[in-house]
Amino acid sequence: MKNKTIKISVLIFLTFLNACKTENSKIDKNKFSTEENLYFGYKPPGLIPELFIPKKNTSSHWNIGNTDSLDTKEFYFTYSGNDPFEPAVIVYRQEENYYFTNRYVFQPRNSENNILYSRHNYIERTDSGWSKIKSLGPMFDREDWGIMVLSVSNKGTIVFDDYKSNDVIRMSRIVNGKREEPKLLGKQINSGRLTAHPYIAPDESFLIWGSEREGGFGKSDNYISFRQQDGSWGSAINMGDKINSELVENGASLTPDGKYLLFRRSGEKIKEDGSKYWETKKYWVDAKIIEDLRSKQ
């Protein structure tokens, strides 16, 4: 009876999303493509980070996949709007009597990606949409590891954090066509507290992550390390007071075209009743700032 109720609720929810489409929410892509100095309808930032205020998303920006063979135990929505912070795909999976979504958010690398990753899972593009969620296998899907963020380079190198092992970052390469066991990165990466949220550049030329370290600007800051000629990672470089502040900065990544760096800034707030909550704001900046940091290594 419970499963039947859940299925009916899901179908009602999906019907509601499709019914909420309006003419005002349609995006005139031709208009944006002909206007100068706009990035998907937004005025892009320079070398000083700017608060990203997204245009309102509507149900028309989210499309349900595989409608011809809808499975209410696991289904997904794809994003077609113009907010670079939004995931490419969100999968809803029924576990017991609940639908979990925060575990299954798949971020894009570029528009040609045929595989998207989320923690120790991945999905593949098929002729009819995206596949069911698949596990990366026992090398990554382990009870003693707590993966929050997993990043993959164009070569297939995987970098991920692990909050169950005292906040560390590991890396796994493909060597001679085989996936190697994940290895802890060195002290230049795994130092300080709250080391997490890694992002490896598509060409593996740099690695960005969040960490709270002595000499930082406050709480967690964004740090960057550049790949050296011998293949090692260089010393950690604090990304500076343009990126970091006395608040928490993390979650950095590039837009799929590599033009802009995105990151999040969070701070603790207090409500009128005295209770506390976290407020997170999105920022973006021209990716050229990375080249400026490279000169400091």
Largest sheet: 5 strands, antiparallel
Number of helices: 3
Q: What separation lies between the terminal Cα atoms?
A: 62 Å
Shape: globular
> Architecture of the largest domain, CATH level 2?
6 Propeller
CATH class of the largest domain: Mainly Beta
What is the ordering of alpha helices and beta strands? HHEEEEEEEEEEEEEEEEEEEEEEEH
Could you characterize the architecture of this molecule?
- With 297 residues, this protein is mainly beta.
- It has 3 helices and 23 strands.
- 10% of the residues lie in helices and 36% in strands.
- 24% of the residues are buried.
- The protein folds into 2 domains: 1-124, no CATH class; 136-297, TolB, C-terminal domain (Neuraminidase, 6 Propeller), CATH 2.120.10.
- Mean pLDDT is 86; it is low at 1-34.
- The strands form 6 sheets. Strands 2, 3, 4, 5 and 6 form a 5-stranded antiparallel β-sheet that branches.
- It has helices spanning 2-19, 29-34, 288-294, and strands at residues 50-51, 62-64, 74-79, 89-95, 98-100, 105-106, 115-118, 121-126, 129-130, 134-135, 150-152, 158-162, 168-172, 174-175, 178-179, 183-184, 193-200, 206-212, 221-226, 237-238, 248-254, 260-270, 276-286.
- A hairpin with a 2-residue loop joins strand 4 (89-95) and strand 5.
- The protein is globular.
